[in-house]
Design a protein that fits this description.
The chain is α+β, with helices and mostly antiparallel strands. The protein contains 5 helices and 10 strands. One of its GO terms (biological process) is DNA damage response.
């Protein structure tokens, strides 16, 4: 049998067809079937979830509030004390006096929290060598001042008595809302109402009916989180500072997609 005869077989009536012709037909049908399935899926998705049949709107809610809580970050730094235990003794004595002065000013001990407490050796470079020169000790506390609405001068008063008692570091004062969750919820509801009003205006103009909400996303533009308002380093004899809290604003945006009926 010749090479050509090995590659072909008789199909009847003297006609010849290529060996593997059936496989080619099978592969072609398989590809067509896959293409058909993909096309049906795409068409089904466009028919059922057609994004063109939606109205997207953005609503914004704003709530202005006056902070009612302040947090004062203050501390004491002791440097170059010859012995470690003496450095800690001096630090502890100063902190005890500061806490007493602050509580005498009307702050509860529950609102005074230690944030940092350290003891570290200090070295000087003498004759091309590092030599121990003493120890430094540091403690920082956060003092929470509540009900600022009825105690507007309390921040200045606490800072004044604390520095007089020995505080030589104030790293910041932050303000926050007494009930941040309630403010966020109020702003959120205003944003949703704003979005609904905009969608209704669009639907009225286009003479269409709004359907269900099919998508909603929230974006917080500004939040009633603690905000730095006052920073300084202090020595003895500092004047009482003026630390106004001012007004803050909570802003929330919502993106809403309405289905068109």
């Amino acid at each position: 049998m010749s090479a050509d005869d090995q590659k072909t077989t008789c199909c009847g009536d003297g006609q010849k067809c290529c060996r593997g012709y059936g496989k080619l037909i099978y592969k072609s049908l398989l590809i067509l079937a896959v293409v058909a399935i993909v096309l049906v899926a795409l068409l089904r998705d466009r028919i059922i979830s057609n994004p063109q049949w939606q109205i997207p709107v953005v609503g914004q809610g704003r709530v202005e509030y006056t902070p009612e809580v302040a947090n004062i970050n203050m501390g004491v730094q002791i440097d170059k004390i010859s012995k470690a235990d003496e450095a800690l003794n001096q630090l502890n004595n100063k902190i005890n006096g500061i806490v007493k002065a602050i509580t005498d000013a009307g702050v509860s001990t529950d609102d005074i929290k230690t944030q940092n407490y350290t003891l570290t050796p200090q070295y000087d470079f003498v004759n091309n060598a590092s030599a121990l020169s003493g120890y430094s000790a540091n403690q920082t506390v956060v003092v929470k001042i509540k009900d600022l609405k009825n105690n507007q001068d309390k921040i200045a008063k606490v800072i004044a008595v604390a520095t007089k008692a020995g505080v030589n570091q104030i790293s910041g004062v932050t303000f926050e809302a007494a009930d941040a969750n309630a403010i966020k919820q109020e702003a959120r509801l205003k944003a949703i109402t704003d979005a609904r009003n905009k969608a209704e205006d669009i639907a009225k103009t286009l003479d269409i009916d709004l359907g269900n909400i099919v998508g909603l996303w929230e974006n917080m533009i500004s939040s009633p989180e603690p905000m730095d308002a006052y920073k300084m380093g202090m020595g003895g004899g500092a004047a009482s500072p003026l630390v106004p809290s001012g007004k803050q604003e909570m802003v929330i945006e919502v993106n809403v997609n309405y289905q068109i009926d």
